[in-house]
Request: fold
Amino acid sequence: MRTVRLPDGTEVPALGQGTWHMGERGGSAKAEAGAIRLGIDLGMTLIDTAEMYGNGGAEEMLADAIHGVRDSLFIVSKVYPQNASRSGVPAACERSLKRLRTDRIDLYLLHWRGSHPLAETVEAFEALRAKGKIRYWGVSNFDARDMQGLVQLPDGAHCAANQVLYHAGSRGIEFDLLPWCTQHRIPIMAYSPVGQGGRLLQSRALEAVAKRHKATPAQIAIAWSMRDPNVITIPKASDPKHVRENAAAGAITLTAEDLAVIDATHPPPRGRQSLDIS
Ligand SMILES: NC(=O)c1ccc[n+]([C@@H]2O[C@H](COP(=O)([O-])OP(=O)(O)OC[C@H]3O[C@@H](n4cnc5c(N)ncnc54)[C@H](OP(=O)(O)O)[C@@H]3O)[C@@H](O)[C@H]2O)c1
Reply:
């Protein structure tokens, strides 16, 4: 499994698993935990969740999936912006730890910017880190300007990742955010890398490249999303067939010719774009 370096040099898998829409009421948490466990067995040992997903249900589902193998994993969770105050962050973290049935979260992210002062959130993250409740903290849905502001704050430069939407159909971050994060050695975590299983998978360009690699368009979308050495990608799959496909995508290396085919249909940005979130 290829790895990406966190700012302190620690290596984490470049290909992980998402959990949005898992652990929801009326869903099949047992089957979902089975899918995550299959992904773990296939090497996708970085797993992304959030207190928001399934209203805590995704974290509970994940607790079952990681039982007995937790120490070999890198678990990412997120705090709601409305909980991101000095006292709200540790309380939310405790609730997540309880649902996950673990004693630490490897990477704890602010899900998106809210009304609590960012300096307070950072202070709370640092206090959790000092207590060993979290190993790293980071942010999500921050654009380049947000990141520039963040690193000016006391301890703001300790941010270990920024999780944003990134797939071949939405490349705005390549103009400013991705270069800025790379320069500051802060990894990007690409969410929705297969475009939430929607229209992106019908892309003629992805289909053409998939044919060359005897792969599926989803596998090409994943390989594309993790082609940059500073990007971690976290596709979500409940279907075991998708899980197997996604794990195998980590071994696909796209050629310059493949990338040119994709660029022709899905061009890189020519200017600054506002951060995409859906
Ligand atoms: N920070 C944020 O604000 C934020 C926002 C969105 C997402 N995220 C995180 O990023 C993760 C991934 O993003 P996402 O869930 O939005 O979208 P995604 O991973 O791009 O797409 C998930 C959808 O694609 C389908 N799929 C997965 N692999 C496939 C394959 N090989 N072939 C065909 N279809 C496939 C899945 O189907 P099945 O489930 O049926 O297999 C599911 O419907 C989330 O789960 C979450 O952890 C974070």
